Input
Amino acid sequence: MIELIGSLFVLLGAVFLFSAGVGLLRMPDAFTRIQAGTKATTLGNMLIMIGLAFYHPGWTPKLILAIYFVLMTNPISSHALSRAAYRIRTPMTPSTMTDALAGEDAEKPS
Output
């Protein structure tokens, strides 16, 4: 029964990682690709590591540490990538309604 629960977590994590790959292909610009990749891969990696914890209970402390690392680094790195893309003026998709940073960067020196 424990192996079945672990397998379901791994399968669900794989589905989220697959959806991240599809999101990278389907999204129209760099900013939405970064968002799709980050959110889905963070959850997908966490679910796979939870599934591994069911398979190998002795690895649980290391897996919890790895989950914490993924939770801290994925959002920070995606924010840094998005900010860098915005600063080099990577074009947004024409359907973007609002540029919340439009006036903010003009005031600060690079």
In short: The chain has a mean pLDDT of 90. The helical segments are 2-26, 30-55, 60-87, 104-107.
